[in-house]
Amino acid sequence: MIRHLALEYSSASFANAFNLGDEIQTLAASMLLANVDGYIDREALHDQVTPALVCMNGYFMHTPNWPPSPAIRPLFFAFHIAPHAIDTICSAAGIEYLKRWQPIGCRDQGTVEVLRSRGIEAYFSRCVTLTLPRREKIPESGEVFMVGFGKSSPLRYMVPRGIRRNAVHVDQAEVRLPITNTALKMQMARELLDAYAQRARLIITTKIHCAMPCLAMGIPVVFICDERQRGDYRIHTLQDLVTVNYGLTDGYFAKRRNEKRAAQINWEPAVPDIRTVGEEVAEAFKAQYQKVLNS
Fold it and tell me: What's the total number of domains in the chain?
């Protein structure tokens, strides 16, 4: 069988800081593959020499290293094109490459529209993190986790002081450590997901790839977002799964206005059950996976 590679984030772009949301997505994709024989850096797909199947899920990308090497058999599922990378990925050569492997499973409707507008077959696949297994039990004396709230962010004031003061504060999206070892970062991602599953009674977050895996695991989530992101197609992927609460990040009165908005938020949300969604995503992944294997 052709070697299976999952994405890693080990290039110079990640030398001083990294986003564990990337590793969480790789971890979820790895659980859907028959096996993972190794990893390939997202920014070095053009350098691959030996034949390999690569799961192309997640955020693309920081460098102009596109399209990938002909040695790669790409599994396009939960694919997201960052706005700044559209011209690179949808260059003439990029469009030709994507058409060769269409239809493209996209993490969000915005990426679907980008591709369809260029004549590429694409569909909304959702994110693979929605397939993570549901936790087996709810902690008896669970904790509140606040994930992705910087100390200077006005969004933190949307959370009542009593909750904020006693919460476990995590920044999974900007881990400022000079680590490029993929095995270590994958272990960190596993440990973090285990902490959420075993300890959290509530997750309050501004991060999509904290909210989605936690919803899949059956953890109540309050999602808070910058008002300016109302048009962000990444945020729209959450809207049918959890309430999106918008807050202010600019202006002299942002803190005070956000404190008032706290009264409009349900701080005791029900335990989510999105297993049907996760099963649909897993089935669609398997179908695309088999198609690529047979190509």
Answer: 2
